[in-house]
Each structure stands twice: as structure tokens, then as C-alpha cells.
Design brief:
The protein is an alpha+beta fold. Helices cover 43% and strands 16% of the residues. The protein is globular and about 50 Å long.
Amino acid sequence: MSEISDSELITLLKKNGLKATPQRLAICRFVLSSKEHPTADIIFNEVKKIYPSISHATVYKTISLLKNLGLIVELNFHNSHSHFDSNVNLHVNIVCPNCNKIIDYQSKLVDEFYKKLESEVGGKFIGQRFDIYKKCKECK
């Protein structure tokens, strides 16, 4: 998860040509604090509970900015809507193929594997995404 203060969010929004409205700040807070890998619709519906007049466009513009700033990662899967992950550190996404629940998994083993793979391939990697598909406890 990204640790970022409201004043830093306001500065980022203004610097990138977006107004620092309460709605945008709520979107940022929700996405950056979520461990659930929400979709745009989930983000919209959650923020709409507090700000009923929010638009889909505001959600999409704010998500786009957070992606461009490297604060979140978009996870596309062939059978569902995009999900957004605020954990931009090295980790494995454990994805349930039934309900699309995503759990982040981090371990020293993953770090060691990544470093070894980077060494074998040569050069510094510019990104990664590891997905493992496994039914969650609820879908077993």
C-alpha cells in the first residue's frame, strides 16, 4: 500500500491539472488503502455512498492519474474487469478463478527468485507481475 498524506495528494492532483476536490481525495484514499484490489465500479459505488453526485469520469480520471504516477497497478484478467492494486512492491497475486478475489503474497522466496531471474536474464527489470490461480477458501 502507498503511504501518502492528504497534503501530498492535493499537491499531486494540482500538479497534474486536476482539482483536489473532496471526491477525488476520497477516491485516492479508498484506492490507496484498499487491500481488496477494487474495480472502478467498486470504487465508484463506495465513494458514491459519501458523495452521491460523483461521476464515473472523476473515478476514471483519478485512477488514471494514480496509475501514471506509479501509485497503483492495473490488473487486467481475461474474464473480468480491471482491478487496481495499491501494492506496487514485488509480490505474487493469488487469484481465485471462480470469484476473482485477489490476495497479495510476499515472501523472501519471491524476492530471491526475482533477483536470481534478473541475474540470469541480465540487466535490470523494469516491472513484473506474478499471478497464481488458486481457488480461495470460500470457493473450494
